[in-house]
UniProtKB/TrEMBL annotation:
Protein name (Swiss-Prot/TrEMBL): Purine-binding protein
Domain of life: Bacteria
Keyword set, alphabetical order: Signal
Occurrences of domain ABC transporter substrate-binding protein PnrA-like (ranges): 42-326
Organism: Peptoclostridium litorale DSM 5388
PANTHER family named among the record's database cross-references: ABC TRANSPORTER SUBSTRATE-BINDING PROTEIN (PTHR43208)
Signal peptide: 1-21
CC terms in the record's Gene Ontology section: plasma membrane
PROSITE patterns hit by this protein: PROKAR_LIPOPROTEIN
InterPro entries noted in UniProt: ABC-Purine-Binding, PnrA-like
Length: 369
């Protein structure tokens, strides 16, 4: 009797084991587990400005739409979110709505993203333009200083007064690096030119940005560049009969009589790559800083207002940047107080670029410390 009972029990165990094995085989053979399918993947985006700004937030939002189209995932977004504690609530709300990946797209969100990422280890957080990371938190940015340099070449060959204005947001390494790269581009083709900087202490304020550009124009600048999110400086240049270098997106339509070109962002392919990795289980935290060779940063098409010799020069230099033979921050480089900050034969490291707190020779302005 015991043998029969034992035999029956063994039979039941065998049947149960086979059933489990069958279930396991079915799960393993699935190309895409249900929890990571496109239908169940929701991605959140947080913007510091309105998506209609025509600049920074607009570029990120265009990439969000590209992501939806490429992968078929659903997305949610919140625009005009201040760089403060409010962003914590926004992230929690997105997670409550089912977001499994969140892109926070402004520097001032960094500490808050780090805090929330530790509270939600199963959610992937990607922070733009910062430097902190964690097991489920990446930071990402692009080497915008590369097309900035090229846009400086355009400005240097276009100016007639040898005075170029630059409307800048905040005295942080990202902005300072851009001013310096632009000025190095200007000086490489026009040693007599200088770049005057006006700080607005805002990312998105059309009125103050335009006013800053107007003051630079009144002082003799005939080309205006910017590290701002609106087209205010472009419009000021057009109204004064001057020329302009945009930023973030192709701003030709905003000031067609003034616009020359712009360093622009192309976030879409990066967003697709990161979300796809999250879906298939291969996502890993990283510090990403792509350049022109990745096409995450580009120089927008130059308009007919750009001299033909400038177009030829930029085309030549762009190829050198992409193949690595031209390094924007290769010495010798002096700061605007006359000190040698990069010696002959040296090239700034990424760490030095990311902590830049000085202005190159040729910049008229200062940094509050």
């Amino acid at each position: 009797m015991k043998k029969k009972i034992f035999a029956v029990m063994m039979s039941l165990v065998l049947v149960f084991s086979l059933a489990l094995t069958g279930c396991g085989s079915k799960e393993e053979s699935s190309d895409q587990p249900a929890e990571t399918s496109a239908d169940s993947m929701k991605v959140g985006f947080i913007y510091v400005g309105p998506i209609g700004d025509g600049g920074w937030s607009y570029a990120h939002n265009e990439a969000r739409l590209y992501l939806e189209n490429e992968l078929g995932v659903s997305t949610i977004y919140k625009e005009s979110v201040p760089e403060g504690p409010e962003v914590e609530k926004i992230m929690r709300d997105m997670i409550d709505q089912g977001a499994k990946v969140i892109f926070a797209t402004s520097f001032g969100y960094m500490d808050y993203v780090e805090k929330i990422s530790k509270e939600y280890p199963d959610v992937k957080f990607l922070h733009c333009s910062g430097y902190k990371d964690g097991e489920n938190m990446s930071n990402y940015f692009g080497r915008m200083y590369e097309p900035r340099y090229l846009s400086g070449v355009v400005a240097g060959m276009k100016t007639q007064t040898n005075k170029i204005g630059y409307v800048a947001a905040f005295e942080i390494p990202e902005v300072i690096r851009g001013i310096n790269a632009f000025t190095l581009g200007v000086k490489s083709v026009n040693p007599e030119a200088s770049v005057a900087v006006r700080w607005t202490h805002t990312w998105y304020d059309p009125v103050s940005e335009k006013a800053a550009a107007e003051s630079l124009l009144d002082e003799g600048s005939d080309v205006i560049a910017q590290h701002q999110d609106t087209a205010g400086p472009q419009q000021a240049a057009q109204e004064k009969g001057a020329f302009s270098i945009g930023y973030n997106t192709d701003m030709k339509e905003m000031a067609p009589q003034a616009y020359l070109t712009a360093p622009v962002w192309n976030w879409g392919p990066y967003y697709v790559k990161q979300v796809k990795a999250a879906m298939d289980g291969t996502w890993k935290s990283e510090n990403y800083w792509g350049g022109m060779e990745d096409e995450v940063v580009q120089l927008a098409p130059m308009t007919e207002l750009v001299p033909s010799e400038a177009v030829q020069k930029v085309t030549e230099l762009e190829g050198k940047i992409k193949d690595g033979s031209l390094k924007v921050f290769a010495g010798p480089i002096k700061d605007n107080e006359g000190n040698v900050v990069v010696k002959e034969g040296e090239v700034l490291t990424d760490e030095q670029l990311l902590s830049m707190d000085w202005l190159v020779e040729g910049v008229e302005g200062s940094i509050k410390k």
